[in-house]
Amino acid sequence: MPTVPIADRHLNLVPFVSVHHMMELVLEIGVERFLKELAAYIEEDFRRWEDFDKTPRVASHSREGVIELMPTSDGRHYGFKYVNGHPKNTRDGRQTVTAFGVYADVETGYPLLISEMTILTALRTAATSALAARYLAPKGARCMAIIGNGAQAEFQAMAFKALLGVDRLRLFDIDQGATEKCQRNLAGLGFEIVACASGQEAVEGAEIVTTVTADKQYATILTDNMVGAGMHINAVGGDCPGKTELHRDILLRSDIFVEYPPQTRVEGEIQQLDAGHPVQELWRVIAGRAVGRRDKGQITLFDSVGFATEDFSALRYVRDKLSGTSHYVDLDLLADPDEPRDLFGMLLRFPGSSLLAKRQGV
Question: Signal sequence span per UniProt (predicted)?
Answer without folding.
Answer: none
